[in-house]
Amino acid sequence: xxxxxxxxxxxxxxxxxxxxxxxxxxxxxxxxxxxxxxxxxxxxxxxxxxxxxxxxxxxxxxxxxxxxxxxxxxxxxxxxxxxxxxxxxxxxxxxxxxxxxxxxxxxxxxxxxxxxxxxxxxxxxxxxxxxxxxxxxxxxxxxxxxxxxxxxxxxxxxxxxxxxxxxxxxxxxxxxxxxxxxxxxxxxxxxxxxxxxxxxxxxxxxxxxxxxxxxxxxxxxxxxxxxxxxxxxxxxxxxxxxxxxxxxxxxxxxxxxxxxxxxxxxxxxxxxxxxxxxxxxxxxxxxxxxxxxxxxxxxxxxxxxxxxxxxxxxxxxxxxxxxxxxxxxxxxxxxxxxxx
Amino acid sequence: xxxxxxxxxxxxxxxxxxxxxxxxxxxxxxxxxxxxxxxxxxxxxxxxxxxxxxxxxxxxxxxxxxxxxxxxxxxxxxxxxxxxxxxxxxxxxxxxxxxxxxxxxxxxxxxxxxxxxxxxxxxxxxxxxxxxxxxxxxxxxxxxxxxxxxxxxxxxxxxxxxxxxxxxxxxxxxxxxxxxxxxxxxxxxxxxxxxxxxxxxxxxxxxxxxxxxxxxxxxxxxxxxxxxxxxxxxxxxxxxxxxxxxxxxxxxxxxxxxxxxxxxxxxxxxxxxxxxxxxxxxxxxxxxxxxxxxxxxxxxxxxxxxxxxxxxxxxxxxxxxxxxxxxxxxxxxxxxxxxxxxxxxxxxxxxxxxxxxxxxxxxxxxxxxxxxxxxxxxxxxxxxxxxxxxxxxxxxxxxxxxxxxxxxxxxxxxxxxxxxxxxxxxxxxxxxxxxxxxxxxxxxxxxxxxxxxxxxxxxxxxxxxxxxxxxxxxxxxxxxxxxxxxxxxxxxxxxxxxxxxxxxxxxxxxxxxxxxxxxxxxxxxxxxxxxxxxxxxxxxxxxxxxxxxxxxxxxxxxxxxxxxxxxxxxxxxxxxxxxxxxxxxxxxxxxxxxxxxxxxxxxxxxxxxxxxxxxxxxxxxxxxxxxxxxxxxxxxxxxxxxxxxxxxxxxxxxxxxxxxxxxxxxxxxxxxxxxxxxxxxxxxxxxxxxxxxxxxxxxxxxxxxxxx
Lengths: 340, 708
Hints:
Helix content of chain A: under 10%
Largest interface: A-B, 57 and 69 residues
Radius of gyration of chain A: 19 Å
Oligomer: heterodimer
Largest sheet of chain A: 4 strands, antiparallel
């Protein structure tokens, strides 16, 4: 266990990468959940997320930099979280019972209407991502009360199954080709390892040497997958899965680190400790990991985690601003050195 | 769980004494949170009630300076026969300087005996980022435990030899670099509580091994940190360990020592790979829970989980159930344990509460997520779902929402069983437990109006630390210690104490109302108050602005001669009328925005001129607008002359506290508690819309007000 602390954003310095820096658009107060349940970003910079109301409830919203947040019209009085959004503005997520977090239902929100997605014969389900073809991925409970990765398309649900010998899997990301990334175990109640579901079936993506678990959190158009995995010392590290190899992306100074998003240019974002549990948002590019706090040109922000990066290189992140945790959109700019 | 397996182990014993100065029926607090269920409750408090705990009748009685910081909860024994001095109510305090004090609770903390156990570990060797210490050595960290039957106090002291100060490098405030160059030794101590003399062959150096199919681990005192409170059960003293700053290949060790011989005869480690680490047992200093059968429960931190290659179950990030001989009987590891490891979201940031009269244990970690677990079937690790009774988001903190203070339990006569938890950057919350369904209502029945800390609550650690005093199931009071206005994770910061009505969480008292008398000083991290025989005991890291490594014990109770004073203005909703202009304090245009500057305006019976007045004692009040539900405040808590009077979210900040004093003729001055300045009409204007400010009191009519 480590302590958590906060400090002001680092002093503005010349950007170390490509003479680029980021401006920030504040998307409002936001309360984070666990890594596997995070807001989403599409090509149009539309954000699927949630807001806290009455200090006790959370409701799904769609947010953009140019217009006010839209509360999704979802049934019931449960908590709701929007976890995925495609380029057509269709959002998916979960409805969650306030009295028990395990009691979830997957939903699709399209054209102003919501739809509950079927489970796999069990009680619970969760939709975590959607591509432009309307292919949704997530997980659902089976009749035998196992949780399996699932996909939904045009109202039909499909059990994506597990690795041989496994009894549990989850999907976290889908790309425009319809390939799905997530995790599955390979023995009953065993630990998960990163997997990809493609047209040829389910494929394990591997572990770090001496490690025991891995998870795939994002996938780009080239089927490059990122996530996290533990090493021989039990430390969790951000990793990239590509061409059958697992690359440890390192940390900003201390474990743990996790890769949470990747775009089609292979730029990766996530979160890493700098020391003793102090988490910071990172950007990984050309073999190096950068603290995003050193790439911003706005004071008053302390970026804790970067969730997603889209085609344009815009980054969805969250951090402290004006005393509270806010969601924000980072937009890259080129430095004109002649004017400095 | 039937009556033979009830968790709640009553150790609040009734003692009858002939001593005239010692009350007839008294309590003992011999372990962390009062009992081995860790309920945090003293249900035999007959002196302190919600009626008399207010700033008029209740306050600081005395402080005792100590020789180091205190992370250990104080303990208390009633009517203890001290040689040559007769029966005394004695409070015991242990310090990071390796000292144990026995203090007379009723005689201004007179020292009855003190014992010191040598040179503690230097912080540069273990605390690179000062999570535990701030300029303080590491001596006695875990809360001791007392065996009343043998009149013995047990604790672990730590010593360092071969320390080389030239190898320490102070790189920044609170940040050292060092490489454990000293040699550390941990000792289990047993002292006679009447004299402070060692017994049972004390002290005993702690050594241990743990055998599993993976290997044989050897206990390494240079990386293990004795963090959790010691636990006494089954004729054994159980001692649990974590690490310093996650440094080195540490493990979550629990060792069992025979309480009479001090022989270490039981051991357990929750992780077993020698090349790996973690699974520390931190629990923010809370003790292990014990059920009626003597089984031991702990909550563990980030670390390996699931079976090792040799089939040894690893129980990092788990609730674990161990037999009295420390064999793993059952466990619960959350389905998302890998994600917890990947984001440093330890489950074991607090201890577990054993819910009285049930087989249930309850707790949560850094996610702020609460788990209700059946100890007869804990659910183990299930890859698909958590096989627990219930789990819900209990904390909604700003930035971080760790639970560090172990939840506490009170069976209220009017509301039934309640569980209280104060996570960081959030409000104190009371959740109702339904005896029939054996579930909690995830919507709190009550919440405090202030967060922990009250300001700068953005990722600040570590939240609130709680205890309950009550007479049976009535007169319940929740006592809380939290950082006041800053993050204390790697700093020494000001503390604040609160007392709340247990049914409503309405604040009864805090130490800022009469700060000059009651100020607690620097927050003692992770330490809950205790209440015994009409007094509340809480350590601090010394008075405000005291040097590093300071410590003191603060004792509060009913003030001599203190009587309940009827308030000058009773609780109610009022218009506040200027003596000078005849106009009312007014929220312009019914504004609901925080920070809106208040004005005077012609009296018009509007809700924006109605203020809900609540007395906190000593005629200190809060004023909340009926229109905006925001509190009358000074902008930015300024202490400057002429600072605007605004409305802000109700927080009980000092700048929202006003002292009412009669100036005669039915008029009053309102003095801001934070600034000492009076509520004032800017430049003494008589015009509608004139703004209100604060200004030193000049006996001017524009500084005088009536309530109607």
